[in-house]
Amino acid sequence: MADDGVAGQAIETFAHFYRQVEEGASGLIHEGDIEPVPRLPSLDELDQPSAADAAAAAAETVVLKLNGGLGTSMGMERAKSLLVAKDGTTFLDIMIRQVLRDRERYGARLPLIFMNSFRTRDDVAEVLAGYPELAVGQLPVDFLQNREPKLDEQALEPISWPDDPELEWCPPGHGDLYPALLASGLLDRLLADGYRYLFCSNSDNLGATLEPRIPLWMKANEVPFLVESCRRTPADRKGGHLAIRRSDGRLILRETAQTSPEDLESLMDLSRHRYCNSNNIWIDLGRLRTVLDEADGVLDLPVIRNVKTVDPRRPDTPKVVQIESAMGAAVQCFDGARSLVVGRARFAPVKTTNDLLVLRSDAYRLTPEFRIELAPERAGGEAPYVDLDPRYYKLIDGFDERFPDGPVSLVGCDRFVVEGDVRFGAGVVVRGSVTVGQGDGRLEIEPGSRLE
Q1: Which of 29, 25, 21 is nearest to 247 (CA)?
Q2: Cα–Cα distances in Å, from 152 out to 118, 158, 303, 448?
Q3: Three-class secondary structure of residue 144 per DSSP
Q4: Nearest to 150, CA basis, from 258, 12, 14
Q5: How confident is the model at residue 379 (pLDDT cuts 50, 70, 90)?
Q6: In the predicted model, is pLDDT for residue 262 greater than 90?
Q7: Are residues 299 and 402 in the same domain?
Q8: Which residues are the active-site residues?
Q9: Could you tell me if 19 and 156 are in contact, meaning their C-beta atoms sit under 8 angstroms apart?
């Protein structure tokens, strides 16, 4: 890592996590060590601020997008943010235009900074160059996430892959935000320029936009770290959740990868663990600097031992361990950390082609302010559930081939399941709960069909 120019702070962090993995740490959080989170306050309960207060909050805020993902789970080999998200516009363009509109709305400088990985930086550089107005003062429009070696699953030594040496490296998860901010000098530069709050979110979640009520509430209640959470739905049953750690009463996150097989039933109990992490995180920059100083720059986050193949697009290549940590897990490092419940309009991540179909469909709309909103007809306030047969739709090429004329209409749909190889014509409408089944061969759904 040192020979490759990786920052010393990142090396120390990797060494800290490596020692835990070497000693057999699994990073598991057992059900017996946590309690459910009681009722949380809601963003909807907060008063709307005056124009002056909203502008003051925006003036103290920096927007940061985690943009290190390649979208390999969907068969992509470039930055996922370059994928068309809605109405022919990419995730990256929508994010940029959201912030430019907010600058006009609040009269604030409002920097937008991307944390890229070594695999995505070149991909997005050309797009960012097309927005010269994006830069604020001497602040960069992006900075690099660190990288670390993939480890042989058995030996826990750096893997060698001469066919493509770049595949010997991986990003260390979005928990790398903290050593990357520190090592790059960006944290101190933001503090010196008078910024107080950092709003971080994933670049595949277009619902994560500036919300001045949150930093104003944080300031009024002296909150150093805030997680936006959502009420879990059946679509979140296999995902992570918030919990209270019994040993010290602190708020923590438990991901699926940190859950033992015997605790999976409790993880999926929506009546017990009611809140999931949206990965929209708000951080008081001054308090972050203090916490990092007290920890000698290495936050003690739960380690995630992620087993993959050295070439993520080839399951026949050797298995490797990627040592990762989660950005939101830092909630446990701050006394007084809090969470606010937000609506699903602020949490519309695209992790699979199932999510992409919902976003591209009329269940969501893109406003003139480049906000992503659920259609007014979605009276329940939730997006439809979609499950496309992964044999045919998991990869973006196969997905686009089967929706060649655009997405089906889902505004009146509750549940849409596709089993088998099905190709949809233009203007297909899906209403209610629908399963389309197909055995051998391809099923063609005629243009204008109505599926109920």
Answers
A1: 29
A2: 21, 6, 17, 52
A3: strand
A4: 14
A5: low
A6: yes
A7: no
A8: 351
A9: no
- Residue at a domain's end among 317, 346, 375: 346
- The domain containing residue 71 runs over which residues? 8-346
Q: What tens digit of pLDDT does each residue of 152-163 get?
A: 999 999 999 999
Residues 335 and 362 in one domain: no
Q: Residue 15 has which token pair?
A: 């060494």
**H or E element that contains 441:** strand 429-445
Q: How far, CA to CA in Å, does 11 sit from each of 303, 316, 325? A: 15, 30, 14
Using alpha carbons, list the distances in angstroms from residue 393 to 228, 401, 451. Answer: 31, 9, 19
Residues 6 or more apart in contact with residue 400 via CB below 8 angstroms: none
Give a yes or no: residue 338 inside a domain. yes
At 151, phi and psi to the nearest 5?
A: -115, 135
User: Are 401 and 335 found together in one domain?
Assistant: no
Those residues whose C-beta lies under 8 Å from the C-beta of residue 137, and which sit 6 or more positions away, are 109, 193
What are the φ/ψ torsions at residue 10 (nearest 5 degrees)? -70, -35
Whether pLDDT at 24 is above 90: no
3-state secondary structure of 54: helix
pTM above the 0.90 mark? Answer: yes
pLDDT, tens only, 129-138: 999 999 999 9
307 and 395 belong to one structural domain: no
